[in-house]
Amino acid sequence: MGKVRDSGTPPPYLPARTSRPSPEDQVRFIANIERILSEGSFVATYKYALLVALVELAIERGDDSNRELVLAVRDIADKFAELYWRQAAPYEAGGVSGIGLVLHQNKGKQAGAITRLARLRDDLKGSRSTLAEARRTADWERLVGRMRTLLKTMPLGKLQRVGHEDVCFLYEKPDTKANHITLLPGVACHLRERAPLIRRLAQTEWLRFVLSLEQNQPVLGRAVGLSEFLFGSSRAALSLKVSEPLRELQRGRCFYCQRSLSSAAAVDHFIPWSRYPRDLAHNLVLAHGTCNSRKSDLLGGEVYLGRWAEFVSDHDADLLSIGTDAGLLVDRATSVSVAEWSYGHAERVQAEVWLGGTEYGHLSAGWRGLMPPISGRGL
Ligand SMILES: [Zn+2]
Fold first, then answer.
1. Of 49, 68, 66, 79, which is closest to residue 10 (Cα–Cα)?
2. How far is the CA of 362 from the centre of ligand 1 (A)?
3. Residue (of 60, 49, 57) closest to 87 by Cα position
4. What pLDDT sits at residue 111?
5. Contacts with 369 (C-beta within 8 Å, 6 or more apart), sequence order
6. Do the beta carbons of residue 281 and residue 275 sit within 8 Å?
7. How far, in Å, from the CA of 256 to the mean position of ligand 1?
8. For residue 357, how far is its CA from the centre of ligand 1 (angstroms)?
9. Which chain residues have CB less than 5 Å from ligand 1, an ion?
């Protein structure tokens, strides 16, 4: 933690809000960063790069007061281009650049930022050119101009989009004509204070995104296997083991919409895997593929929490035997504690929850009353 400066009387020209953000503010800020990284939708890596760019600019231009920080979009664009510079070189397994493949950073065709930088690299005689050399060319300035347009039309407006709402905690949503953004009071200070953590979070998600793209498989295929192996859930195996018994328990109906399930159904982690990456038998339900993907990484609303509470209470013994047969961890008390933690967190950060169909909303304080008892009924 940095030292809190107490300089007695503040200089008269500074507004009163120049004191540092409180610890509670910091916790809320990191929770919001987590939300945009885990609940935002990503079709390209631009939002990760933008977040890292803001961290670096806050370090370079900001101070440790609670003040606003005005940043020219042109300067963000310059930083943005710099972050992508090394990534636009062809990648070869082993992490060296050479004649390999320029990694894709977009779900569809290659990200425009990468294409332009790769072209500039080519013009400057390929991978031997350095960033410092590139920056001295007139082409760099043109490139930054293009990045500026790209930033305005895409990531600047979308970075703070979480699910179906905007959480503007970094800066007010800019219009596409604005030439600058203003980091809200305290934001630059937060970014400076937690820079290593925020950068690491953004880079981890960035890496994961690049690893997941189909187009990168020729050079990254094995690494994807590794990531799944280290951190993933074997969905296929899970589905094979618990689909049928869960279908029976749910009387052939989707846990969420209650309509009848076709033969292909998805095993859903009631508390999403992204929040709690462990397969606990009591946390699994069977749902339509569409219901499962609409819920995505969100929590289900209170109706679903109530239904789940009833489900695990009524079927405790069944879930115990399904889980045991499937070789899963069976721990009802832990499942309930995890749900309590997750809903409590969602309420505190006002996370979006899925209400069914294409409806999304927020939790009321009433969710606590819906929680099942920790110990099983009749045990
Ligand atoms: Zn359904």
1. 66
2. 20
3. 49
4. 86
5. none
6. no
7. 5
8. 8
9. 254, 256-257, 288, 291
| Ramachandran angles phi, psi of 161, nearest 5° | -80, 125
- For 59, the token pair is 């370090």
Helix (H, G, I), strand (E, B) or coil at 266: strand
Q: Using an 8 Å Cβ cutoff, are 299 and 271 in contact? A: yes
Within 10 angstroms of residue 314's Cβ, the number of other Cβ atoms is: 13
Would you state the pLDDT for residue 226?
A: 64
> What CA–CA distance (Å, rounded) separates 181 from 173?
9
Residue 276 CA to ligand 1 centre (angstroms)? 22
Query: Distance, CA 369 to ligand 1 centroid (Å)?
Result: 25
CA of 142 to the centre of ligand 1 (A): 50
Contacts of 88 (CB under 8 A, 6+ apart): 102, 114, 117, 118, 120, 121
**Ligand 1 centroid distance, CA of 264 (Å):** 12
Task: Return the higher-pLDDT residue of 93 and 130.
Answer: 130
Determine the average pLDDT of the residues in 42-52: 91
pTM of the full structure: 0.69
Q: What are phi and psi of 213, to 5 degrees?
A: -75, 130
